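Working notes for the structural subgroup meeting. M.R. asked for a predicted model of this chain before we commit to crystallization trials. I am recording the input and output together here so anyone reviewing the notebook later can reproduce the run.

Input as submitted:
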Amino acid sequence: MDAPPPSYAGRLRECEACGLLQRLPALPRHAVARCPRCQAVLRRRRVDPHGRALAMALTGLVLFLVATREPFMQLRLGGRDSLAGLATGPTELNATGAWPLAIVVLATTIGAPLVKLLATIYVLIMMRLRQPPPHLRRVFRWVELLSPWSMVEVFLLGAFVAYTKLVDMAQVEVGAALYALGGLMLAMAATDTFLDDAAVWDRLAPAQAPSPGPGVLVGCDCCHQVSRLPPSGRLRCTRCGTMLHHRRPGSLGQSWALLIAAAVLYLPANLLPVMNLVSFGQGESDTIISGVIALAAGGMWPLAALVFFASITVPVLKLVGMTVLLVGAQRGASGRLRERTVLYRIVEAVGRWSMIDVFMISILTALVRLDALATITPGPGAICFCAVVILTMLSAMCFDTRLMWDAGTKP
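Returned structure, recorded in C-alpha cell form:
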C-alpha cells in the first residue's frame, strides 16, 4: 500500500456531526477515516480522484441530453396518442395553475442535475491547468449545494408508479428518455462515488494552517479547512469564501420554524385531493391514502407498500425524528448521542424520497391530457405535500447536530 500525499496526514479536521477537532491519519488507497466519537466519515481516499469522476460526469451529460430530447413515455387511449418528454410535466403543471409544483419538478429533474454535471465537468477539466483559476472554488461549492436537490433516481421511481397506474387504463410505451434517465442515474451515482472532494479542494487551493492568536478553531462547512475564528466572530474561509461560524447561528429556531410549518401543512396534504381525474365527463379525486388503497386493491402490494412508505411513513418519520432531535438539543440531553446522530443521518437521507408522489402526478398530468376522453390535473393536496417535503428537508439542513454534542458533553 502506498502512502498518501503528505498534505493529508496530520491535517486538522472538525467533525461535521459532533464538532470534535482531530488530526487525520495517513490513509492508504481505499481507506476511510472516521470520527472516533460519532463514527462519521471524515475522509475517504479514492484511487483516481479526478479522471474516473470526469469520465462518469461526461457520460452523464450525454445521457442527460438524450433524456431531454427524446420522448419519455407515450400513451394510447381511444385512438388518440399523448407523447410526453422530460419537460412536458412542468409545462402542463404550469398550464393547470400548479406553478409551484412546476418550479419544483423543473428544478429537481432538469435544473439541479444539469448544473451539477456542468459544474463538476468544468472544475475537473479546468483544475488540470498549472494554475487553476480562483473562481473554480465558487463553482465547486455548487456541486455540494445542489446534490440534495438533484432527484433523478426519485423521479424514476415516480415514473414507475405512474406507469403501473396507466397500464390499467391505456396502452403505454416507454421512450428512449426513460432508459437514458436510468443511465444518467447510474452515471451521477458513479461520479459521486469516484469524486474525491478533499483532493479536488487541495488541487484548487491547498489548505492553510490556522493562524495563531486568540479565537476558536472552526471547520469550514464546505471545504473543511480549519481556521481560527477571531473573537469578533466574523470571518470567511480563505479557501472557498464560505462564512465561518463556531455553530450555525439560529440553527434551532430556523429548524423549529420550518418543522412547524411542515406539520401544519401535513394535515391538508393528506386530506385534500392530490390528483383529479376527469374521464368521459365524470370526475374522480384521489388523496394519498386512497391512491395506496387503490394500488393494494389492484393486487400491487409491493408498489402500494412503496408508496405508503415514501408518502406517509417517511414524512411522519421526518416530523417525529426532527422533533426528538430538536427537543433533545434544547434540553441538553446527554444520552444516546451517537444514536441520535444516526437518527439525523436517516432523516436527512430519506427526506427526498417522499417526492415520488409529486413526480408521479407530474408524469400523469403530462400524459393524460386527452380532453373529453381523460384528463388528469393536480389537486391542492399535491402542492401542500410538496411543501411538506421541502420544508422538512430544509429543517434537517438547518439543524446543527454539533449542538447536541455540545449540550450532551458538558462537564
